[in-house]
Amino acid sequence: MYKLYHFLISQWKFLAFFCLISTISLNGYSQQQNIVSGAVVDSADAVPLIGVSVTIQGTKKVVLTDAKGRFTLTAPANTNLVFQYIGFFTKVVNIGTSTNISVELASSTQTLGEVVVVAFGTQKKESVTGAINSIQTKEIKQSPAANLAVTLAGRLPGLTSIQKSGEPGRDFTQLFIRGQGTVNAQSPIVLVDGIERDLTYIDPNEVESVTILKDASSTAIFGVRGANGVILVVTKRGTSEKPSINFSTETGLQDFTRKLQPVNSFDFATLRNLAQKNDGLGPAFSQFALDNFKSGADPLRFPNTDWRKLLMKDYSSQSRYNLNVSGASKAMKYFINAGFLDQGGQFNTESGLNYDPSFSLSRYNFRSNIDVQLNKSLKAFLNVAGYLEKQNMPGGVLRTFGNRNAQLAGESTADFIFTFMNDMNATDPGPLTPDGQV
Questions:
Q1: Do 40 and 52 touch, CB atoms closer than 8 A?
Q2: Could you give the number of structural domains in the chain?
Q3: pLDDT, tens digit, 9 for 90 and up, residues 125-183
Q4: Burial class (CB in 10 A: 0-12, 13-18, 19+), 172
Q5: b/e per residue 335-356 (b: at least 16 CB within 10 A)
Q6: 102 CB contacts (<8 Å, ≥6 apart)?
Q7: Could you give the C-alpha distances from 386 to 74, 148, 189, in angstroms and in order?
Q8: Torsion angle defined by CA atoms of residues 183, 185, 187 and 191, in that order, rounded to the nearest 10 degrees
Q9: Coil, strand or helix: which one is 333?
């Protein structure tokens, strides 16, 4: 009985101590909570803002301002409050120990005054109701691609681009807006200054903006031709009163995004013997051959040919040069642009021949945009553009090599070379001896 009494006393003391500590902790926590009130106004004219979202940073506790722009909430001292409102910049305010604060939000609607290109003309963003996205010159020139269509990849929401080849002159890009809307003609209409053209042959340096029209309301004027969307390209025109001359040059190196790593001759021979054994056949390579492939003592009879390194370069070069002149006066505006693109191929070629077996592309672009104000109500313009392209690609004999003529229908020369390279093994002798002779 005595032991039970002491046990109950000790348990009661522990329970009382626990309750006391809990009460102190709760009181301490509640004492740190402050009732914070305040008002949110427009920084431009001090007009109260209704419905501003006020959030305690790091929590999900949110209140909204009332008709007078006022709010009230409970928050600990030194808390950050996040103020968010459509058309205004988000603002984070530390309340410190204050219980009454005043917050001013700055308008971000200046972007709504920007002009965007629509079907036949321009509109301010604030009056556009259709699904439209656009990018400007600065964003276009960030990607040093060989053609304009490639530079649009990943820059416009809803635009899908598919590039099936990187071969110079054959890097055509398929563009789709919000997928494929029709069975046959699946590509969107491309209009350059109102004229239907191909994006591939346009110099990115002569482009002012690219706009895509995605939904029915924005493409309605095009009828059924706009079923797959519309891409509007606007080229540069003269703006400044003083003549401006700009010259730019870009030089870079190109490489494959991924390179296959072929097995060496010893591994290939070992795996080939294993395959033969699994099929119940004799070995394709003797032990003597395996030993020589492994040691590399006789590379002439037992080679270790790296066909990828033999047929392909580590990298190729690409250069672009651009010169433009622009200006304006009261009666006339002008923009003149000339560009040159030189792109090399990735395949190794023999030098000293009386012909060029390499892959290469040289393209000259020219554009002249002239606007003349004839009188107050009459304006004339002249847009002249063109390009001259030279594409070099080995062909002829390669396309009728062996019995692959029928299989090469519709294939490019690069497709054939890759197929040939994949069919060759490291145990096959290359065109050169180990000392580099033919």
A1: yes
A2: 3
A3: 544 556 777 888 888 877 777 778 888 888 888 888 887 777 777 777 888 888 776 67
A4: middle
A5: bbbbbbbbbbbbbeeeeeeeee
A6: 38, 39, 41
A7: 68, 15, 20
A8: -150
A9: strand
414 in the same domain as 275 = yes
Q: What six digits make up the tokens of 291?
A: 């030993």
Dihedral sign (CA 178, 181, 187, 193): negative
Sign of the C-alpha dihedral computed for residues 407, 409, 410 and 412 taken in this order: positive
- Separation CA 201–CA 204 (nearest Å): 9
- Gyration radius of the chain's alpha carbons: 36
* Distance (Å, whole) CA 271 – CA 276: 9
Domain residues for the domain of 136 are: 113-235
User: Of 58, 83, 107, which residue is a domain's last?
Assistant: 107
Q: Write the CATH number for 44.
A: 2.60.40.1120
Distance CA 186, CA 177 (A): 9
Structure tokens at 336: 């003149």
Does residue 137 lie in a domain region? Answer: yes
Quick one: angle between helices 265-278 and 287-295, nearest 10?
150
Give the tokens for residue 300. Answer: 């002439």
Note whether 284 and 269 are within 8 A (CB).
Answer: yes
68 and 216, same domain (yes or no): no
pLDDT of residue 119: 56
Both 292 and 411 in one domain: the answer is yes
Residue 81's Cβ-count burial label (10 Å; 0-12, 13-18, 19+) is buried
pTM, rounded to two decimals: 0.60
270 and 416 together in one domain: yes
Length of the chain: 438
Tokens 């110099």 correspond to what residue? 203
> What is the CA 257 to chain-centroid distance, rounded?
15
139/286 same-domain check: no
CA distance 200 to 171: 8
DSSP summary character for residue 169 = T
pLDDT tens sequence across 235-282? 998 887 788 899 999 888 888 777 777 888 888 889 989 998 999 998
Structure tokens at 18: 């626990």
d(CA 197, CA 191): 6
